[in-house]
């Protein structure tokens, strides 16, 4: 009988405050979707770092004739065969080096033509203008400074570059986007909590006569609060369901069906990572509104 009464009160409350309940559902859905999306983006960035950092190389660019006239590092002229052999020998002695790849000026010219074939500059370049280089695969990418210290400024070396510098800019951008998403999520979460509190207050005020009667007949505080708490929890649960639908839809339509085809070089996170986050989104959607309603009732109803 008591359970039937509580359920009937929940139905009455949801119908009386349909507009505000809808606003709560939308706010919770958007905030939880942003929360889940932020968690997934963090995992994506971590996955990309692990994938790309394992493949980055340190490049030692060697001086050519054109550099001898334009670059102070190459003031002593183009690299000689003896200097190249010495650089290669010194690289082979380093324990942090996993493999050394040599790229000739002809190979560099070919690769440039393949990558930038539509560039107007490609037509004016010649192989002798391209730099020879050593591409070093390190056992630990964090040891780049060892290569930089050992070979920067050496005769015949134009520059030492770490590909991680390029990747760091990308990861910083993704990290900034993640922080922005978390900021918007926090704002939406505050809006959702305010809506939940206001909805509970309006619902309690509209049923103040019933509450008064329940007090007179000796109903417990929890028995009076239960319908309001469950109303908020149900609204939050529906919002969490929409958030889950947005996350699953984003993974399927945006990531798998579009981004994966447009950016094949990126190793996107799998469904196992997405599914692992869904119970957390569902739990927060259920508990957060219920706790907010509980606090609001204790403060405003004094039951």
TrEMBL record:
<dbReference type="InterPro" id="IPR003838">
    <property type="entry name" value="ABC3_permease_C"/>
</dbReference>
<dbReference type="Pfam" id="PF18075">
    <property type="entry name" value="FtsX_ECD"/>
</dbReference>
<dbReference type="GO" id="GO:0051301">
    <property type="term" value="P:cell division"/>
</dbReference>
<keyword id="KW-0812">Transmembrane</keyword>
<dbReference type="InterPro" id="IPR040690">
    <property type="entry name" value="FtsX_ECD"/>
</dbReference>
<keyword id="KW-1003">Cell membrane</keyword>
<keyword id="KW-0472">Membrane</keyword>
<feature type="transmembrane region" description="Helical">
    <location>
        <begin position="268"/>
        <end position="297"/>
    </location>
</feature>
<comment type="similarity">
    <text>Belongs to the ABC-4 integral membrane protein family. FtsX subfamily.</text>
</comment>
<keyword id="KW-0132">Cell division</keyword>
<feature type="transmembrane region" description="Helical">
    <location>
        <begin position="21"/>
        <end position="41"/>
    </location>
</feature>
<feature type="transmembrane region" description="Helical">
    <location>
        <begin position="179"/>
        <end position="200"/>
    </location>
</feature>
<protein>
    <recommendedName>
        <fullName>Cell division protein FtsX</fullName>
    </recommendedName>
</protein>
<dbReference type="Pfam" id="PF02687">
    <property type="entry name" value="FtsX"/>
</dbReference>
<keyword id="KW-0131">Cell cycle</keyword>
<comment type="subunit">
    <text>Forms a membrane-associated complex with FtsE.</text>
</comment>
<dbReference type="InterPro" id="IPR047929">
    <property type="entry name" value="FtsX_actino"/>
</dbReference>
<feature type="transmembrane region" description="Helical">
    <location>
        <begin position="221"/>
        <end position="248"/>
    </location>
</feature>
<comment type="function">
    <text>Part of the ABC transporter FtsEX involved in cellular division.</text>
</comment>
<dbReference type="InterPro" id="IPR004513">
    <property type="entry name" value="FtsX"/>
</dbReference>
<keyword id="KW-1133">Transmembrane helix</keyword>
<feature type="domain" description="FtsX extracellular">
    <location>
        <begin position="56"/>
        <end position="160"/>
    </location>
</feature>
<feature type="domain" description="ABC3 transporter permease C-terminal">
    <location>
        <begin position="184"/>
        <end position="301"/>
    </location>
</feature>
């Amino acid at each position: 009988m008591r359970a039937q009464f509580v359920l009937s009160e929940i139905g009455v409350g949801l119908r009386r405050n349909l507009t505000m309940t809808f606003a709560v559902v939308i706010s919770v859905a958007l905030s939880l979707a942003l929360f889940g999306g932020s968690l997934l983006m963090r995992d994506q960035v971590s996955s990309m770092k692990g994938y790309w950092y394992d493949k980055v190389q340190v490049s030692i660019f060697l001086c050519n004739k054109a550099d001898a006239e334009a670059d102070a590092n190459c003031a002593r002229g183009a690299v000689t065969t003896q200097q190249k052999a010495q650089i290669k020998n010194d690289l082979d002695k380093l324990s942090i080096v996993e493999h050394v790849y040599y790229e000739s000026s002809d190979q560099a010219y070919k690769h440039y033509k393949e990558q930038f074939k539509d560039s107007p500059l490609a037509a004016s370049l010649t192989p002798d203008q391209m730099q020879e280089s050593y591409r070093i695969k390190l056992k630990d990418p964090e040891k780049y400074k060892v290569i930089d210290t050992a070979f920067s400024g050496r005769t015949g070396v134009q520059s030492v570059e770490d590909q991680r510098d390029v990747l760091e800019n990308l990861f910083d951008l993704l990290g900034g986007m993640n922080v922005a998403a978390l900021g918007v999520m926090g704002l939406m979460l505050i809006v959702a909590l305010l809506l939940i509190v206001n909805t509970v207050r309006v619902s309690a005020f509209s049923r103040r006569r019933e509450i008064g009667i329940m007090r007179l007949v000796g109903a417990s505080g929890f028995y009076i609060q239960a319908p309001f708490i469950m109303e908020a929890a149900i609204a939050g649960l529906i919002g969490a369901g929409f958030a889950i639908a947005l996350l699953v839809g984003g993974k399927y339509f945006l990531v798998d069906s579009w981004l994966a085809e447009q950016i094949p070089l990126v190793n996107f996170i799998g469904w196992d990572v997405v599914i692992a986050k869904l119970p957390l989104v569902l739990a927060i959607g259920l508990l957060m509104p219920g706790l907010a309603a509980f606090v609001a009732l204790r403060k405003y109803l004094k039951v």
